Amino acid sequence: MSFRTFDHPLTASVIALLTACAATGCASHPPPAELLDARAAYVRIESGPASQLKPDRVHEAKVALDKAERAYADDPSTQETKDIAYLALRDAERAEVEAREAKAAKDKVQAEKQLASLTQTQLSQTREQLASASDRLNSERAMREAAEKRASEAMEKLAAAGNSVKQESRGTVITIPGNVLFASGKSVLLPGAQAKLNAVADVLKGQTDRDIIVEGHTDSQGSDAGNLQLSQARAQAVRDYLTLRGVSANRVRAEGVGEGKPIADNKTPEGRANNRRVEIIVSGGAGKTTMDRTPSTMDTPYPAGPKPASGGASSTDIKK
Question: What is the domain range of residue 212?
Answer without folding.
Answer: 144-298
